[in-house]
Amino acid sequence: MFSAEGRDVSHQVMAFAVLRLDAWLETMRGPGGYGGPVVHWWQDNLLYTGPGLDWRYEGIILGYLNLYQATADDRWLQKARRAGEDLLQGQLPSGNFRCSRFEANPGTGGTPHEAACDMALLALAHTLQARGDPGGQMFLDAAHRNLWGYILPVLWDEDVRRFRNLPEDPTFVPNKVATIAEALLAWASLTGEKEVVNRYVLPSLDALLEAQVQAPGSLLDGAIEQGVLGTKTSGRYFPFYIARCIPALLRGYERTGREVYRDAAFRAMAFILRFRFPDGSFPQVVYRNGRINRHPRWVAGVGDILRAMEEVRRYGMDVSPEPTRSWLLRGLHLHGGIATARGFGCMETRGSLRSPDFRDLLSVCGWADKAFRYLTGILRKGNQFPPVHAPSEVEMDCVFQGRRCLYRETPTLLEVRGERGWYYQWVKGTPWARSILAQVQKGWGLWS
Fold first, then answer.
1. CA dist., res. 285 & res. 22, Å (int)
2. How many CA atoms are closer than 13 Å to the CA of 434, on its beta-carbon side?
């Protein structure tokens, strides 16, 4: 337990981290919204660096709304509104959002990304309506256009009463469907509409229960499948993605009073914590046969795991955010961003590296937003936070595709330099980065 003084110090550290993240996010804005390169376990996208109207907006908008609720300072609400307007301006006639596929940008129809944008838009609409601001209606309408223009008519399969992963892919992916369920529950709460809950949400939550491992006494008990195709399960359990199922299960419990949803959330968290490493990190994947893939271990992304911990704690589950909170905070960079992961380089070498991989050090809006949302959500109310300016330049040693290099980031530039000059360079605010390496142009790997 922290002493009162220890709690104050911890709060100051987290508040400072939030302000630095806000300052860094400002450097990532360009025409149309928040941009930058993307790295992921599945695939990297270092060349497209324009705005991504994907799940990064979930954490950014909800993070700024958290700050507004904690401080009653309108400047945070204005930043949330500005981000919401990015989504409005980037919405297509189909209801889709431009560049909503994160690591597969530029592309549209990303899952869970567009539903995550809807959830943020609905929260923004709710906040504005509570203030009597008629502008909230346009954000509500934007969410409606996406939900009723794309997600429900295109992704819902009435024959099996489940959502598809993509129009061309019938796989049921629990964490993505959980985000859709959260968005639909937010819609129902805001509008009073009940049909979407009975027709779409409850079957989706019941499908989550079916995808959860039921094996009391087993290490895998409580795990949730990454994907289910027909009767075939993947046998892969990602702690990060399982954590993203927990809020939807608890929202379902709140809506229906069905304890089976709450209990499933508790069992899912118990599984996640069963595999937490002593340093507070988590494996990337746990396989059905007991094998564990340790690389990369998310840093910024554990914000979503920590947020899930706070969710189950509210309902009486005894969990401690430490040492995971410390793991997260140790990833903060001096320029205000936060490291994406540790261990990307080990995916190629199958061993340890003395210098971190560039992808580990890189701050990515769609991972940093998860830390931002978590940290803003646990700040004490009533405090005022002055603006903080990030340092002008940060340099860190790294490994870039097997080469020892220097990662350099300023408010206007991000680059990787070797002895003979730069290998990779992005001028912030521009939609494409430049690289002289063929591997980057080919996408730097696709991981399954």
1. 31
2. 11
Residue 149: exposure state from Cβ atoms within 10 A (0-12, 13-18, ≥19): middle
Cβ neighbours for 8, distance < 8 A, ≥ 6 positions apart: none
* DSSP H stretches of helix in 90-135: 113-130
- The DSSP letter of residue 390 is P
| Lookup: tokens for 128 | 């504005």
Cα within 13 Å of Cα(263), Cβ side: 9
- Of 82-96, 247-261, 379-393, 419-433, the range with the lowest mean pLDDT is 379-393
| Spacing of C-alpha 310 from chain mean position | 16
Q: What is the mean pLDDT of the chain?
A: 93
Q: Residue 253, CB half-sphere, CA atoms under 13 Å: how many? A: 19
pLDDT digits (tens, 9 = 90+) for 324-360: 999 999 999 999 999 999 999 987 655 555 689 999 9
| Closest CA relative to residue 423, chosen from 412, 411, 432, 414 | 414
The amino acid occupying position 78 is: Q
User: What's the rounded Cα separation, in Å, for the pair 448 and 445?
Assistant: 10
For the chain, domain boundaries: 211-330
d(CA 306, CA 303): 5
Rounded to the nearest 10°, the torsion over CA 168, 174, 177, 179 is -130
Bridge partners (DSSP) of residue 229 are 232
Confidence of residue 441 (pLDDT cuts 50, 70, 90): low
Give the residue among 285, 296, 209, 184 at the shortest CA–CA distance from 241.
285
Bridging pattern class, strands 29-30 and 33-34: antiparallel
Please state, as a whole number, how many other Cβ atoms lie within 10 Å of the Cβ of residue 335. 23
Distance CA(435)–CA(439), nearest Å, equals 9
User: Please, how many CA atoms are within 13 Å of residue 330, restricted to the half-sphere of its CB?
Assistant: 14
Whether residue 395 contacts residue 405, with contact meaning beta carbons closer than 8 Å, is answered with no
In this predicted structure, the answer to whether residue 438 has a pLDDT above a threshold of 70 is no
* CA–CA separation, 301 and 341 (whole Å): 8
Instruction: Note the pLDDT tens digit of each residue in 223-276.
Output: 999 999 999 999 999 999 999 999 999 999 999 999 999 999 999 999 999 999
CA distance 22 to 134: 27
